[in-house]
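Cross-posting from the modeling subforum.

Setting up a comparison between two proteins and wanted a second pair of eyes on the formatting. Protein 1 (sequence, then structure tokens):
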Amino acid sequence: MGESLAKKSKTSQLTYKDSGVDIEANAQWVQRIGSLMKSTYGPRVMSRANAFAGMFRLDFDEVLFRRNYRQPVLVGCADGVGSKVLLAAEMGDFSTVGIDLVAMNVNDLITCGAEPLFFLDYLGVNAIKPDEMVSIMEGIAEGCRQASCSLLGGETAELPAVYEPGIVELAGFSVGVVELPRAVEPDRVEAGDVIIGLPSSGIHSNGYSLVRKVIKSKRLKLSREYDELSETLGEAVLRPTRIYVNAVQTLLRGYKRKRVVSAMAHITGGGLEENIERILPKNCSAIIQTKKWNPPPIFPFLQKHGVSKKEMYKVFNMGIGYVLIVRKAFTEGVMRRLKRSGEAPIAIGKITKGRGRIVLE
């Protein structure tokens, strides 16, 4: 009798795997992403195998790498990819959303003149699927390399009670540094300044609830190649967010004494109006000349399928992913430097005296 009770007790014991969490799969996953992380390391990362946290040196002893910070200010931000991951899951293609995750953070970070130092990621999943998740991590590592920052660590949370099968939640955190006298503060904006726009690659990573609504309500097919797009709809909506770090950092380093950039904005949710408004003093307004550039084909495509022009400009970047407000006398020089960095800058407007309004012409 005692033996049968022991057997019954033994067979009824529960394991973590029974609850949907596979510790062994997680351990294998951690081993697989190690090389991806190291591919982003610079000389300031202190390699510590199996550590609970990453370490990053703000300065460095060797003359070649030394920054010699005098008044360093740390800058931090957090952001995610949002519902764009649902389209990635529907297509079974997670190769671009990792780049999006890094871009959404570092493009915010550099608006105050900061240099990105390192990046941390959070992946929330129903169950660890190594091949799918490695694709995401490859994108994150690529984004970090484009932004010249180190992927210092992260968290993968396997939570079957929180996330439905096939759902991936992506969030990221970036830390940077800027010398206090070189910080870009919007209070320097004044009438006469010129607004320079840097082109986007498409939708980037905002407004995807509306994108998905259009696709569903109009019964559009992600796998179909539409004439207006010259590619499949899926390719158009999954194109990754552009990373502007190197072009902006190169520009700022090129003016060691003169502060020619008055303010900068990352054009995300809320479009040109809302994001430029955030960097306008109360005594200034901005005039944006929308005919100065042609939005990528995905935008007129969405408009054709039921979104008003007003709503398009309210939600999307409409082809301008990043904005710099610069002193008028330095406009041509700034644009030349940006072109040398591979950008295609466009003078899209000007700052006038006003009351903080944005006028789209």
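Protein 2 (same layout):
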Amino acid sequence: MDSNETPGTSNGVPSPQPPPPSFSARMAVLWGDGLGKAAVRSIQVLAVGAVAWAAVVAATRIPLVTTPVLLALILASAMAPVVRWLAGHGWPRALAVLSSFLVILAASAGIIGGIVTLVRQQAGALAVRAEAGIAELQKSITTGPLPFSKDQISAAQAEFQKFLSGGSLGADALTGLRTAGEIAAGTVLTAVILFFFLKDGEKIRTFLIGFLPAGHRGTAHLAAERSLLVLGSYVRGTLIIAAIDAVMVLAGLLILRVPLAVPLAAVVFLGGFVPIIGATAAGSLAVLVALVENGPVPALIVLIILVVANQFEHHVLQPIFMGRVLRIHGLVIILALAAGATLAGVIGALLAVPLTAVGWTIYRTVAASRTTN
């Protein structure tokens, strides 16, 4: 090399320098490492979560629309096998739909009306005995081996009442059941939507799936079919399990000669529609009544019956009647119940588990489709 030449020159002529990297290239380097990829995925998760949260909040703001649609969808899923069976045995589809619709309306009105009437007729006696049971329980606590002062108990009661009156659970429950007019309108709307779901469910599903890209429609149809199967199995299984829980509690109350056995069993039946904790929580009223009318030993026996019924439901009845549905850990179910109750009160607690089961079914279907492809 000539001593007069400098690096980067050739015969005194500067060699061309590579152009500086473009902005997109610099961004690719910045977001292409491990931390950048994690940041991108985090932004994606946050965006999807924000959209999902906005959808949930919007749905809870219009319960007069959302609740009838979800209830009608669940009932239609449970009734669909009956409609298909009647249509397969020569019934015209319109007649099969109308017959199933009228039967389910009559059965629902009879069961719910009978239970509500029975409970309302005995509501005064139940309230009196429950208050006496609470007083008896308070007395036992204050005189027990680990006594609490009356001031401590009163403070705890005040805090609990404050939670019920000011917390979102009580507020949402009262909002959902604000007036009898809203209940009547929701019931009528549910019946109308249920009829159209039974009559034109396939057309509605095809119409909605038609908005998806063509390559995803097959998976969407499969996910919808499996979700309907899950919902139908859940409703039928829950109804059977709630009835068995109520019969077990009723038998125990009758043997122990606990007053108001039939309305107490009806309360347990209604509570059975909330999985895992519903029947046991509703049965606590029976424990209080037994404590007042029959003493601590019968009350303890009633509590044992409730615990046994809960375990029998969890380990025997649910695997038999809902083994293909609730393939979800009990902790997930409890968290779903808590979230549903917080967002939509009583209705949210009733709908949380079936919606969680449907969401899990859709996820598994989509994941299996991606693995296959």
